[in-house]
Write a structure and sequence with these properties.
The chain is α/β, with parallel strands linked by helices. The protein has one domain: CinA-like (Maf protein, Alpha-Beta Complex), CATH 3.90.950.20. About 40% of the residues lie in helices and about 20% in strands. The protein has a 5-stranded mixed beta sheet with strand order 2-1-3-4-5, sandwiched between helices. Helix 1 packs parallel to helix 6. The longest helix is centred in the C-terminal third of the chain and has 19 residues. The protein starts with 13 loop residues before the first helix and ends in a 7-residue tail after the last helix.
């Protein structure tokens, strides 16, 4: 179960694909543009957004910033912030989203940073810990999640959470 009613036999990305379609419709109607900044999802979010024909009408692009030097260089995440809080933190997630918004000149940007697993966790930051942030004209919002799946499941849950947060920012409920 993914927490949203899917059974283990379902494609774990089915719900996320539906959310991406809803996001596309909403953005195209409103004339809004979106960019992504991904770490632990490794481009999965961008993949989901571009699964729908016509996505180029609102999705301008993304940066997969896996290494800290890429987060700092391309997304302008302050190196002092990375040192103080670590790459997997609310502060860095918000800075990544804000950096993507600036870099791409979009109305909205979403960022995902986390520990997909199976290694890399610690007591303070366990495997599955993920931060998702959205940035835009209304400021930034960050959510903290702790997933309990394997690497693929954690990446899928993170991408779905990012889509839900974007839709929430646009004033749309994301149930179902």
């Amino acid at each position: 179960m993914n927490g949203h009613g899917a059974t283990p036999n379902d494609d774990p990305l089915t719900v996320a694909r539906g959310l991406a379609g809803r996001l596309q419709s909403r953005c195209l109607r409103a004339g809004l543009t979106v960019a992504t900044a991904e770490s632990c999802t490794g481009g999965l979010l961008g993949h989901l957004l571009t699964e729908h024909p016509g996505s180029s009408g609102y999705y301008l692009g993304g940066i997969v910033a896996y290494a800290d030097r890429i987060k700092a260089g391309l997304l302008e995440v302050p190196e002092a912030m990375l040192r103080a809080h670590g790459a997997v933190s609310a502060q860095v997630a918000a800075a990544m989203a804000e950096g993507a918004c600036r870099r791409f000149g979009t109305d909205l940007a979403v960022a995902v940073t986390g520990i997909a697993g199976p290694e890399g966790g610690s007591e303070a930051k366990p495997v599955g810990l993920t931060y998702v942030a959205v940035a835009g004209v209304a400021g930034s919002d960050v959510r903290r999640y702790l997933w309990h799946g394997d690497r693929s499941a954690n990446k899928a849950e993170s991408a779905e959470a990012a889509l839900r947060l974007l839709l929430e920012r646009l004033g749309e409920g994301t149930a179902g």
